[in-house]
Structure formats: C-alpha cells, structure tokens
Amino acid sequence: MLISGGSIVSAEAVWDHVTMADRELAFKAGDVIKVLDASNKDWWWGQIDDEEGWFPASFVRLWVNQEESTMVETVEGASPSPSEVQNGHAEASPSSSDCLCLGQTVQNRDQMRANVINEIMSTERHYIKHLKDICEGYFRQCKKRRDMFNDDQLRVIFGNIEDIYRFQMGFVRDLEKQYNTEEPHLSEIGPCFLEHQDGFWIYSEYCNNHVDACMELSRLMKDGRYQHFFEACRLVQQMIDIAIDGFLLTPVQKICKYPLQLAELLKYTVQEHSDYRYVAAALAVMRNVTQQINERKRRLENIDKIAQWQASVLDWEGDDILDRSTELVYTGEMSWIYQPYGRSQTRVFFLFDHQMVLCKKDLIRRDILYYKGRMDMDRYNLVDAVDGRDDDFNVSVKNAFKLSNKDSDEIHIFLAKKLEEKLRWLKAFHEERKMVQEDEKIGFEISEYQKRQAAMTVRRMTKQKGKFFVFSHRSVPPGYPPPMDPMNPGQYLVGDGMEQSEFEFPEPERCKSPFWQSFSRLTPFRK
User: Fold this and answer.
1) Where would one find the signal peptide in this protein (predicted)?
2) Cα–Cα dist 47/53, whole Å
C-alpha cells in the first residue's frame, strides 16, 4: 500500500545475496534497499544506487519507521520460517536520525522508540512460542519414535534447542519485568541483554550444527513416512503452516536479529534517557556475539578443504587434523633447527589451531608434500630471538624465533628469509593462541558427524579423475526462479537453484599451482 501510494519503502539486508541469474540484485548484509515492487510474496524488485533487480524477500527486513512515525506491518509468508520471527525490523536510516535531532517533536520521538520496544517484545513472545512448538511438538514426539530416530539423528536435527528454549524463557521473563506497558518508550531493556550476555553463546553450537540438520532432514524427507510424521506433529501441536526446517531456522535468524533491533532502538533513544548507555553497551555485546558465531560458521564451512589437504599429503601418520583443529592460521617455508640434532633443514610449516604440521617438498615434484611430523602448540611457548649468535644452538641466526617445550628442555629454532616474514609468523602464533582461548570460552568444536561428512567428501573427490572445485552458496532463495521481470513482462529468469554446485575440470598436464598452495590461500590471517 505504501509503494502504490507513492511512499519510499526501505529495507535492510539481513543476509548476503549472491546472484544466481540475470536481473537479480546482489547485496551484502547491512545494505539498504529501496523496495519498488512487493506484489510477489517471495521475490521483491528493488534498487541499490543505480542497480535494480529481483531479490528474495526473506533476505531483508523492513524498517519500523519508514516515513516519520509510520509503522510498516510485517508481510505474511515472506519467508519459509515463521513470519512473526523472520520479518523483524532493521536499523533506522541516517536521515531518520537526523530528523530526530533537527526538530522532530518529543511526542513523535517517543512514539518511534515505543514502536521499536513493542516490536522487540512482540517478536520475543512469538519466538518463545515457536521454541516451545519445536521442543514439545517435534523433539518430544521424535524421541518417542525410536523406530524412526536414533540418538545421533536427534542430536544432529535439533542440536541444543532445549538449552536455547530454557535460556530464552529466563531472558523473556526479565524483559517483561523491564517493559513499561503504560509508556513503552520509558522501558529499560538494555540491562537485560548485559545480564544475559554469556548465555547467548549457546547459539554458536546451534548455528554451527544447522547446516547438518538441514542435510539430515533433506535425506529423511525422501521417505514418505517422515513427511507424514512431521506433518502430523505440526497438526497435533496446532502450529502455523510452515515446514519443520522453517521452524529450525528461527534460532539462527533470531541471534542475527538482535544487533539490528538494538541498533534501531539506539537511534531513537536520546542520550539523556536512562536506558541509553545500557542499550549502547548491549549493542556492542550482541554485535560481538554474532560476529564470533559467523566466524565459527565460516570455519566449519572450510573443514572439507582441510580434510582434502590432509589427503593430499603423502606418508601421513597419526591423528587426523580435524581431531583437534578447525582453521589454517598461516603457512610458509622456513629453515628449522631442532635440538639435540642441530642440523638445519628446510620445511614447509602449516600452523593450525592447536598444532603445527611439518612437511617436506619432493625433490623432483615440488608440488608434492611428505608428512614429517607435527608440534602440539598447547605445549610450547613462543620466544623471540635476536640476530647474532644463539646460545642454545651456538650458531649465528637472523630473522629467527624459538618454540620451547613447557615440560622439557626441547627447543626448536626457526629462521625466516626476511624480517617481514618473521613478523608475520610471530603475529600468526599470537592469533592462534587467541583463537584457542576464544574457542574454549564458548565450547566450539567439530562434531563427529561433521568429521564423518568431511571424510566422505574427501573419499568422493579422490575417486574422480579430474580435480573438483566445490562452491557452496551460503543460502538458497525461496521459490526460485524469480517471478516475471516487471521491466520486461513475459520474460522469465532461469536459475540453477541448487544449494551446492560442483564443477569438474580436466586434469591439466602440468599443475601450475599445487593444491597445498591453493589451500594456504584460505587462511584468514592477513600478510
């Protein structure tokens, strides 16, 4: 109605959208999109700068206050997940904020803050109901059917959803206590987020597990028994008409929504308000939580690459890399001296979290690596070495550093070719220790199921004659392909729509860049 009435309707991207066909609009999370056509429930037509195109409605969130204090209602069915949770509201535009500062009435300002507060409370109440439906309507019923679900399947599909449900009930109880029903704009909800900030880390485990849950559900749904079972669960619990995967998506969306809601609340909270500093602090906390969760998710998406790299190393011994590590931090070639031998050797080092792997290049085929050992980084201290004669090894060193064993006299010295390379390694070791500490704080680890999936991927790839490069789309738009192009009626856009596309290229006669070099480029550490 707003669009047809000539009003400007803006939305903010919640997820990155990677285009898969012509006339689609690409954007990143946080981009502001001008909505030009919302007549189709799944795909909207919008504009960013001079670019126009289709985009999935479920990837964006409308602003609460479009013009002045006009409230935009949520759109039913714009997402495969529950609409009350999916279509929250994002951060207000800078122009709205400027309007507040330049002379908007106190009454309008208070009403706009009340709109945001009411929206937060409404979505929290709906969210609690959805969590209850998942736990009581699906999870509890699945546990009764041992003939259909074993413990591993239940763990993969539902993760720690019951822990999230218990946490959210306590969080909402405290929100309700702080909610001013008579004058919502006076509510002080910032302290609630600060008091419960440590509890939000339980979402990390759920988000990391969500991809596996979708894969397992997709496999089960090929059997008609499971389709009928899940539909019966939904009807008995009197849930809204949305599939189980839509319900299981809501915790992932919810944790990403908090920074957007708090950012908007801060926009409409004057500095003199008693809640201002608490909301500002809560926004910083929740942004950090979601940033760390996204980082952990990115690392899990790379475990197939790590497993593939290990499979490419000859003469591998001992445990798999994934038994302890999830991230390649840095890699490079250096000279290495190890007591008591004292003989300098050139090795290629791969620094992961918790361990560093040593490899040797083949003398003829330099693109082939041989496994030569590893070091447990939890047992070593990093020591900088000054240029000159080293007392421990009685040799002259330059651009060197040491790793000394915490439990013995064992010492390793490493010599980089240049000072810049030494400094990169020192920084990488500090990054590795920081990563380990953060992982321990939130209990991040790879599940046995994810390890098995990575191993299966490697086995499948090694059976192929050519080399595979797998590109995974982080999310798949609903209801693909998009509707008709409004700028060119009668022409439809055609897209792939597959969640993962595999492209096979023939084996080149001579590999210009060996796999382990391509693998090293995946490191998040910047030179």
Assistant:
1) none
2) 7
Three-state DSSP state, 388: strand
How far, CA to CA in Å, does 476 sit from each of 18, 133, 332?
9, 25, 36
Sheet holding 51-56, edge to edge: 51-56, 43-48, 32-37, 9-13, 60-62
Share of the chain above pLDDT 70, in %: 76
Using pLDDT thresholds of 50, 70 and 90, give the confidence band for residue 449. Answer: confident
User: What count of residues does the chain have?
Assistant: 527
How does strand 43-48 pair with strand 32-37? antiparallel
pLDDT band of 67, cuts 50, 70, 90: very low
Q: Phi/psi at 82 (nearest 5 deg)? A: -55, 130
pLDDT at residue number 293:
82
How many C-beta atoms lie closer than 10 Å to residue 45's C-beta?
23
- Residue 219, classed as helix, strand or coil, is helix
> 439 CB contacts (<8 Å, ≥6 apart)?
326, 353, 445
Q: Name the phi and psi angles at 150, rounded to 5.
A: -100, 175
| Integer-rounded Cα radius of gyration of the chain | 27
Q: Give me the residues paired with residue 207 across strands.
A: none
Distances from the Cα of 453 to the Cα of 456, 458, 498, 502, angstroms: 5, 9, 19, 16
Rounded Cα distance between 170 and 359, Å, is: 51
CB atoms within 10 A of CB 218: 11
Is residue 498 predicted with pLDDT exceeding 50? no
**E runs forming strands in 63-136:** none
Residue 327 dihedral angles phi and psi, to the nearest 5°: -150, 130
CA distance 440 to 365: 40
User: Residue 232 belongs to what H/E stretch?
Assistant: helix 224-236
Query: CA 391 to CA 373: how far, in whole Å?
Result: 26
Contacts by 221-228, CB closer than 8 A, 24 or more apart:
225/148, 226/148
Q: Where are the beta strands (DSSP E) in 17-142?
A: 32-37, 43-48, 51-56, 60-62
What is residue 476's predicted lDDT score, i.e. its pLDDT?
33
In the numeric block, which tokens belong to residue 40?
A: 């189709």
DSSP state of 314: B
Q: Residue 207: is its pLDDT beyond 80?
A: yes
Residues 322 and 451: beta-carbon distance below 8 Å: yes
| Helix pair 303-312, 276-301: axis angle to 10 deg | 30
Query: What pLDDT is stored for residue 169 in this prediction?
Result: 96
Q: 470 - beta bridge partners?
A: 502
DSSP letters, 216-277, are HHHHHTTSHHHHHHHHHHHHHTT--S--HHHHHHHHHHHHHHHHHHHHHHHHTS-TTSTTHH
Distance CA 235, CA 191 (A): 38
Residue with tokens 């122009």: 95
pLDDT digits (tens, 9 = 90+) for 153-175: 999 999 999 999 999 999 999 99
From 514, 518, 522, 519, select the one nearest 362 (Cα to Cα): 514
What is the token pair recorded at 444?
A: 């991040």
Q: Which of 466, 452, 453 is nearest to 515 (CA)?
A: 466
